[in-house]
Structure formats: C-alpha cells, structure tokens
Amino acid sequence: MSFHRLRCVMLLVVLLGLGGCASLLGPREVVIPLERLQSAAGRKFPLSQRPMDLIDITLSNPRLALYPEDNRISVTLDARVAPAFTRRVWQGNFVLSGRLQLDAQRRAVVVVQPRIDRIVLDGIDPVLARQVAQAAGALAGNILQDMPLYSFAAEELRYGGSTFVPTSITTQATALVVIFAPAN
Fold this sequence. Notes:
Layout (H helix, E strand, L loop, with lengths): L2 H17 L1 H5 L2 E6 H9 L4 E3 L5 E13 L4 E12 L6 E14 L4 E14 L4 H19 L2 E5 L6 E2 L2 E10 L3 E8 L2
Antiparallel strand pairs: 1-10, 2-3, 3-4, 4-5, 5-6, 6-7, 8-9, 9-10
C-alpha cells in the first residue's frame, strides 16, 4: 500500500473514531444538591393566589425535602390566608408534595401528581379549615403541577464536544442524580 493511501485510510479511521466519541463517552451522571434545588425554588416565591375569588392565599419561604423511597419531593411553605368575607387573617404553613419526573422537551426536572399533605393555620376552626383545604387543594395543583424544579443549562447538556439528553432521575435524601446519555 502506498504511503498516500495509508495516510488516507488512517485519516478515515480517525474521523470515524471521532464521530463515535459520544457513544464512547457513554452515559454520565450529574448530581444536583438539595441546596441548589432550594435556591431555584426560592426564586419562584412569594406567590399569591385567590382561588374561586373567596380566599387570598400567599405562600412564601419554600423549604424542600427529598424522599428517595417514593421519588417524591415535599415543599413546606409559610402561608397567609385571608378569606374575602371576613377581616381575619390566619398564618401557618402548607406542606405540598409531588413526584419528580424528567421533561425532555423543557430540559427540566418537573413536579407531577401534586397533593396537599398537611395544612396548619393558627386559630382557625375545623369546619373552616376543611373549606380552606378544599380551596388550597386546587391551588396546590396549580402551583406544583408540571412546575420546573430545575432546568438544565445548555452547557450541562454538552460534554466532551457531544450533546447529551437526560434519561433518568434518582432521588437521594440530599440530592437528585440525573443520568444523561449521548444524543443520537
């Protein structure tokens, strides 16, 4: 084989090897600490809503907790509740939770299947507390449903000159672990 032909074959082998680099890199793992999630959630609050035009609800100061056993996140929020039909104002907290899921289109970790785990308001009678809980149930769905908890920056999706996509998520007590695979 001539030297020129050998150089062309070697160049072709190198180019083919470079083209397959993304697949050689394989999946990679990115750890998102709870503190980073807490910071991202803090930027979304305070939030005020008026469900059914009956009650003013202001939620602030989110505190997150991760539950690996069922892949859920819990958000405890300070609550200020003021019914439109009275001058009373109740202070307390709402504890909401949801399941974590990847949204590939938005390149984000989102919360799905939200629910209210607990509502505690100081000085409210039990009958009114149930009514507040019903109104707040709709609010919880609106707040958490498909809420992007963490969005991936463009640079997090590139590694070693290749583009990656998030494929799975694992919840740990102090962090989320996202597995990325090379995009084809």
